[in-house]
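DM from R.C. (forwarded with permission)

"hey, sorry to bug you on a friday — could you get me a structure for this? deadline for the figure draft is monday and I only need the backbone to look sensible"
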Amino acid sequence: MKKLQFKKDINASAERVYNTMLGLDHIETYEQWTSEFNPTSTYEGSWEKGSKIYFVGTDENGKKGGMVSEIADNVPSQFVSIHHYGILDGDQEITEGPEVEKWAGSLENYSFREHNGVTTVAVEIDVTEDYLEYFNTTWPKALDKLKELAEK
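My reply, with the result:
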């Protein structure tokens, strides 16, 4: 597993960037920036520390799938840590087996640092080899979209 890091400076308060990124005021803001990964991307659950959360979308056949995760930490407007531990196949949670073992236990961390009205969002994610190119291409686009949304 490789650790990837991405950063983006956004001309908005940390609170605004955090709320926009997580879709706390309107889930649509989360769905809009994550549409870079999947046009149907959304989440089901809570961002509260210790909560289970599903990151889901539908495939070309309309079947729901995604990640089964836990919010490992959440310090509002400062830091969010997501622990991925399973996959969702339709309505079935899969938490063991070869598909899960490749990346089980991986973390996705977001930090928000505000200075003079500009917030630097830093993303650190654990990625398997087969997703390196995809995430290296897609994360910068997603962060550009987040910047656009938060600066509106």
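R.C.: lifesaver. The first helix runs from residue 14 to 22.
me: no worries. The chain has one domain: 2-150.
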